[in-house]
Every structure is written in C-alpha cells, then in structure tokens.
From TrEMBL:
Organism: candidate division CSSED10-310 bacterium
Broad EC category: oxidoreductase
GO MF term list: thioredoxin-dependent peroxiredoxin activity
Domain Thioredoxin: residue ranges: 33-173
Pfam families in UniProt: AhpC-TSA
InterPro entries membership: AhpC/TSA, Thioredoxin-like_sf, Thioredoxin_domain, Thioredoxin_ResA/DsbE_sf
The name this protein goes by in its record: Peroxiredoxin family protein
The protein's Enzyme Commission number: 1.11.1.24
Kinase keyword on record: no
Entry keyword set: Oxidoreductase, Peroxidase
Annotated signal peptide: none
Amino acid sequence: MVQSLKTIRLMLCFSLGFLLLLSLISGVAAQELTVGTLAPALTGKDIQQQDFNLSRLKGKVVIVNFWASWCIPCRYELPFFAELHGEFKERGLEIVAINVDKDIAKAHQFMKKHKLPFTIVLDTDHALIPQYHPSAMPTSYILDHNGIIRYIHRGFHKKDQDIFRQELKTLLNKKEEA
C-alpha cells in the first residue's frame, strides 16, 4: 500500500514536471488577459478576406469575441450581439467576432442562418488565440476607446444581457464625456 502511494506520487510529480518542461520548451506561457491591460494587437482576414486590424478601431468601444459554430452559448450570444450592434453602433460601438472553427464552411453556415452585421475575423489556424488566451467559448473582451480591457465575459447566459448593456452604456457615456 505504502509502495503504491509512493509510485503514484512519483508518477504525478514526473507528469507535472514534464508538462512544465513542455510548456517552457514550446514557449507557451498561457497567461490570461486581465481587466485594465491594453488589448493585444489583433490582425487577420475578415469573412470577405479583407485585412482587419484592431488598431483601426481606436477611439471606439469594442467587443472582441471568440466563438465557434459548435459552441452552444455562442448560438445565443451572437444574435444578441447583433441586437447590441443595432442599439449602440451610432454611439461608437464596434463588435469583432473571431471565429475559431477549423472548417470555415461551418462558420459560413452559421452566419448564413444568423445575419451578423458586424466584423467576423477568421482564425482557422488558431493564430489569434495565443494573443488573448480565451479560457472558455465564448469569451468576450470589452475594450474602452483607448483599447484598454474594461470587462471580460466567459461563457454566455441570458442574464448576461443586462450586464453587457450596462457596461456598454458606462463606456460609451465616458467616451461621449471626453
């Protein structure tokens, strides 16, 4: 019994050490973004294969959202974002939804069903994920007009709708006062 516990501990320590070593070798230090930090640069191709650069949206309040067609909460969140876009676009809201599907056809199928009036950036090779480190699908980062992350949402529930609206009103009012 004592010998088997020692064996289990040894295997666990070896496994954890191996994972740590692997992350150091690969250079991956998955550090999640936090509120109050500058949003990382974000460039890519949108759904029309046009160049996209987040820096062009400086001066606007921006929702940067990571989503996938297989994500059940995303199926509810993105139509809600279309609603928010209609409500707040004239006041300076931009929404950038980053699709992480490997199969672009699934993203197109989803977008055909849900007419999304905002920018969709494709990340089929997952090059953008390491910059933001979303820990759940969907994850949304709300940026102020200076590109600072002010709110982070992981997952989506119907009750989040009022929270999103209040956060956006707060940031858009600050922008209008400036």
